[in-house]
Amino acid sequence: xxxxxxxxxxxxxxxxxxxxxxxxxxxxxxxxxxxxxxxxxxxxxxxxxxxxxxxxxxxxxxxxxxxxxxxxxxxxxxxxxxxxxxxxxxxxxxxxxxxxxxxxxxxxxxxxxxxxxxxxxxxxxxxxxxxxxxxxxxxxxxxxxxxxxxxxxxxxxxxxxxxxxxxxxxxxxxxxxxxxxxxxxxxxxxxxxxxxxxxxxx
Length: 202
Prior knowledge:
By secondary structure, the chain is an all-alpha fold. It has one domain (about 1-200). The chain is built from eight helices and no strands. The protein has helices at about 1-10, 10-35, 40-50, 55-65, 70-80, 85-105, 105-140, 145-200. Helix 2 (about 10-35) runs parallel beside helix 8. The longest helix is centred in the last third of the chain and has 57 residues, at about 145-200. It is rod-shaped. The N and C termini lie far apart (about 65 Å).
């Protein structure tokens, strides 16, 4: 492993660093989405049941015990239940604007890594070729192929490493973005549903 890094040159260390950052972001996001996953139908059912009985403290406790973006928004809605539907929706949408950045955290960085990794690989290719042709320029002809091979090896290693980092980063980036979009759409539907319900019960 260390020999490959040394053969790949300085660019290879940058690519390795980016791969570690990408892996950390992917792991953190997967654990986060697992943590906030709840049974929405069951949660909303319990919430509506408590609100229908005017047990608003119980409804707030249900939100506290099921921490997720959805429960955070529902909690805000319940706390503003005495206002009109418009005010309730505005308060929930304001809370949603705070939740969305949390859902999208680090995704921009992951997307950037996915795009620049192959470019760094190409940079390694260029610097490796410059090194190889520099050998030819100094000696005119090379009797020992290993002198030329080191530069070409650097070029090939960094290109391959950049692509290897980029492919899973792009795949997970697309997956995570799709997941965030799905959650946001689901939140919008639940918010509209709860605003109507709270407006009737509040």
